Known about the structure:
single chain, globular
Amino acid sequence: MIKQPTSLGCFLCGKDNPIGLHMHWVENRENKTITAEVIVPETMRSYPGIVHGGIVATILDETSGRAILLYNEYDNLMVTLKLEVIYKQVTPTNTPLRAVGRVKKPGSSKAIVEADIILPDGTVSATATAIIMRPPNKALLGADPAEEAEWKNTSPAK
């Protein structure tokens, strides 16, 4: 298992984000998946005990998008063009969740990726399919040098 890079301020993986989830994804090159464990606190709920659907979508978006890193170098990131989420049942707060991502159709400029959120009993609470694409170079202008350094310092050698 290979740990994927992290950032400083990202809502999901940012180690310095005080309100973030501090998630870490690991790659399983054998089965071509990435996984992350997370417990979403009650402060990120909609109804009591239920993770807000936007937070569920955010976890699925990041997990599916990071799956492409199995095929690309860590500095060749893509952004979401389209995300379809299917909520199969509620996702509970304060519960260990596993997010699993995989690539359905790889590509160098555009790809199709998928992700699931899995409950402790193995039930899939939500699933997503996304189309991701290489952003235009101008979208990367103004990147924070500290963020770039963190990403590079936490990127394993391929």
